[in-house]
Amino acid sequence: MGVWKVSGGRKLYGDIRIQGSKNAVLPIMAAAIIAGCETELLNCPQLSDVEAAMAILRHLGCKAERDGDTVSIDSRGMNRTDIPHDLMREMRSSVIFLGAILARAHKAELSYPGGCELGARPIDLHLEALRTLGADISEQGGSLNCRDTGLKGARINLAFPSVGATENVMLAACGAAGETVITNAAKEPEIIDLAEFLRKLGASISGEGTSTITISGFTPKEAVGHRVMTDRIVSATALCCTAAAGGSVTLKGVVPAYFETVTAALEAMGCEIERKTNSVKITSEGKLHAPRPIVTRPYPGFPTDAQPLLMAASLKAAGTTVFTENIFENRYRHVAELTRLGADISVVGRVAVVTGVNELFGAPVTATDLRGGAALITAALGAKGLTTVYDTGHIVRGYDDFDKTLLNLGADISFDPETLASVV
Q1: Which domains, from first to last, does the chain contain?
Q2: Rounded to two decimals, what is the model's pTM?
Q3: In sequence order, which ranges of 133-176 are alpha helices (DSSP H)?
Q4: Which of 289, 310, 380, 397 has a CB 3.0–4.6 Å from the CB of 6, allowing a cystine?
């Protein structure tokens, strides 16, 4: 049990360099097995999910080592095509390895990924698309057994622009003969980063960042180097923390356009936002007002991962903020914990209504998921007194040295990853 302690009321000041993206690096690490080659990935965050992906690679017979923020992968010795249940459970997005293993070995066996704290994450779109490419997939006893006698390019129209399904098709298509066209593809920046890596790996790919992606060939390289994009959700987190606590913080090494919906919302709440080519500066007096309704949608809409964070920043905003969650059915699990700090939030179905309060007060709370946990810390920064956040490992899945980052900005925060404590 990890325990975070935050004494609120201190404004944040300074510059921070945003870590590499969790949601970008994981599919890129899976892609590293498509061709037996050596891969060097720079700007890799030190996260439990990244460690889980490295464990999967080692199980498959690859070498995976870390030196600082560089992860080196040698997939030439890959000699297995299965992923056991215990490794699948460690990383919820581990199904992304399915397309990569099929592209490399044309057979794969892994346990069926279940739901998560945000609700079910069905992979029907993944399996339907891979079958269209020629994969024979049977589901037995909670396991997926996949084989193909030669993947063939096809036209695949996704019923929903799923990021995971788009990535799995992109990976599998690298091992398919002919041209694959994905329509209604996800447009997220992480898709663009994956495409850039696949192009370096030897793929002929175009259209990333639009609704139509084409993969039309693959000539494997022997060695590949790539720098992982910065994390747009961590960027949003830093902005929301500053909005809630007050102060002035500059994010460096970022692409402002990738989280523009978040900065626009914060600007509408009364924060001053200064955008430059590779940086964003936020200044907040801590006295905010409610923005227009926030509706989560696939990129370039407002990201579901940033919804809990902006909600935390809006708890003391004058007026009423309305959130509509369209991606995950259980995305409001953090609401009950925020109310323990004194927040006024009502939820009906997919809609949450936040009525701003004058003050928040520290209390013991429990992290229910990754972004919900970060939202609790965000709210705690703007609360009076001590907030203790009990966490079974959610936050460290997505944030590299979150406590140290906030400490350097002036927050009063501590983190003990191994405290034995009963959850209140």
Answers
A1: 2-14+286-416 (3.65.10.10), 22-227 (3.65.10.10)
A2: 0.95
A3: 163-173
A4: 380
Residue in 30, 38, 77 with CA at minimum distance from that of residue 55: 30
Question: What CA–CA distance (Å, rounded) separates 356 from 336?
Answer: 16
Q: Cβ–Cβ contacts within 10 Å for residue 421, how many?
A: 12
Cis preceding-peptide flag for 189 (omega within 30 of 0): no
For 241, list phi and psi in degrees, rounded to 5: -60, -45
**Amino acid (one-letter) located at 393:** G
d(CA 412, CA 414): 7
- Structure tokens given for 227: 């720098």
Amino acid type, 209 = G
What the block records as the tokens of 67 is: 């030196």
Report which residue type is found at 291.
P
Buried/exposed 24-51: b ≥16 CB within 10 Å, e otherwise: bbbbbbbbbbbbebbbbbebbbbbbbbe
Distance CA 129, CA 31 (A): 17
Query: Rounded to whole angstroms, how far apart are CA atoms 421 and 319?
Result: 37
DSSP code string of 191-223: HHHHHHHHHHHTEEEE-TTSSEEEEEEE---SE
**Burial of residue 420, with CB atoms counted within 10 A of its CB: 0-12 exposed, 13-18 middle, 19 or more buried:** exposed
Known catalytic residues are: 116
How does pLDDT run along the chain (424 residues), one tens digit per residue?
Answer: 899 999 999 999 999 999 999 999 999 999 999 999 999 999 999 999 999 999 999 999 999 999 999 999 999 999 999 999 889 888 878 899 999 999 999 999 998 764 445 444 568 899 999 999 999 999 887 789 999 999 999 999 999 999 999 999 999 999 999 999 999 999 999 999 999 999 999 999 999 999 999 999 999 999 999 999 999 999 999 999 999 999 999 999 999 999 999 999 999 999 999 999 999 999 999 789 999 999 999 999 999 999 999 999 999 999 999 999 999 888 899 999 999 999 999 999 999 999 999 999 999 999 999 999 999 999 999 999 999 999 999 999 999 999 999 999 999 999 999 864 444 4
